[in-house]
Amino acid sequence: MALQQNEPLRIVFMGTPEFAVESLKLLLEASFNVVGVITAPDRPAGRGRKVQESAVKQFAIAHNLKVLQPTNLKDDNFVDQLKELEANLQVVVAFRMLPRVVWDMPKYGTFNLHASLLPQYRGAAPINWAIINGETETGVTTFFIDDKIDTGHIILQQKAAIGKNENAGNLHDRLMQIGGALVVKTCQMIAEGNVKTFPQEQTDLQKAAPKIHKETCRIDWNLPIEQIHNHIRGLSPYPGAWTHFQKSEDVDMVVLKVFQSEIEPAEHSYTIGTIITTKDTLKVAAKGGLILLLEIQLPGKKRMSTADTLRGFQVEENAKMR
Q1: Domain ranges in the chain?
Q2: Within 10 A of 173 (CB to CB), how many other CB atoms are there?
Q3: Distance, CA of 229 to CA of 187 (rounded, Å)
Q4: Read out DSSP for 160-181?
Q5: CA distance 29 to 17
Q6: What's the pLDDT tens digit per position in 17-47?
Q7: Across-strand partners of 304?
Q8: In the chain, which residue ranges form alpha helices assigned H by DSSP?
Q9: CA trace torsion 209, 210, 215, 216 (10° rounding)
């Protein structure tokens, strides 16, 4: 559907975390008219449970944008407030699932930015799962929202290579930049009335990106070394891969977080999970070789390099990861 002559876009932007801020920032820099911002309610966070505003809210307020923070997207009062903004396009980046009454409201639809090459990696954690699964390529997609999750017709896609040792944090930051530019390009195409969409192809090889849970993050040392390495970098820096660590047979196991690793392919006769350590290195035996742990975190301690950790921590000869 083409815009009518002299009918500029009036955009409502919906998003919550830092990933969404870049898209909003680039829209403003491209002189698009953002008439309102919808973001999550303020919530207590951290050890002190201090109430915190979302990254999107902080940015929006700093740029004098109208902000709405509904707890219920179907609430009549919110729906009325949304209508009063008279938006003809809604842009969604890292928000929650919208009811039809919201996504079907604007004249030119509601589109979403997703951090994968749809239909691959639909779901809450596409960046993490792409790395965990050892992908060498991913990307970002803009698509018009429909009544299912991440299934609507695709507008634009942009591919991005994944580095061999790249972690989820670094990929997140790159896709945030690439995605923001794609959001602007998508809005420009809608403004010019030359959008051509295509449906998502269904395939038996489709991979999902479900929410990451605590047990998802546990390292399985019985896996091949490449899979363990991918698991660690796919969960770094947040929420972090973890393992049970037992420094000696007469000491209880503790949870050790692992943020960075390297692969050392080798034939060995060690039992899986055996720790091989020197004064400043810590390696774990796995299938196909050893995993060199470069950055770790002990309970109650700061995240730091393994070399620094070992300066004040004694690892016994029979220590194991479980």
Answers
A1: 10-192, 215-321
A2: 13
A3: 39
A4: EE--TT--HHHHHHHHHHHHHH
A5: 19
A6: 999 999 999 999 999 999 999 999 999 877 7
A7: 296
A8: 18-29, 55-62, 76-84, 100-103, 126-132, 168-192, 225-234, 306-311
A9: 0
For residue 231, pLDDT beyond 50: yes
Quote the CA–CA distance of 15 and 259 in Å, as a whole number. Answer: 28
Phi–psi pair at 130, nearest 5 degrees: -60, -40
What is d(CA 65, CA 10) in angstroms, rounded to the nearest whole number?
A: 13
Fold of 215-321: Methionyl-tRNA Fmet Formyltransferase; Chain A, domain 2 (3.10.25)
Note the Cα 51 to chain centre separation in Å.
Answer: 23
Contact between 206 and 273 (Cβ < 8 Å): no
Of the listed ranges 30-44, 111-125, 193-207, the one predicted with least confidence: 193-207
**Residue whose C-alpha is closest to residue 91's, from 10, 195, 201:** 10
**Tokens representing residue 296 in the block:** 């770790």
- Strand 289-297, strand 282-286: pairing: antiparallel
- Residue keyed to tokens 């196991």: 253
Helix (H, G, I), strand (E, B) or coil at 73: coil
Residue count of the chain: 322
Using DSSP, state whether 227 is helix, strand or coil.
Answer: helix
Rounded CA separation 47/285 (Å): 36
* pLDDT exceeds cutoff 90 at 109: yes
| Triad 120, 209, 203: Cα angle to 5° | 30
- Structurally, at CATH architecture level, domain 10-192 sits in 3-Layer(aba) Sandwich (3.40)
Six-digit token pair at 191? 């403004």
CA dihedral of residues 50, 51, 55, 61 (deg, nearest 10): -130
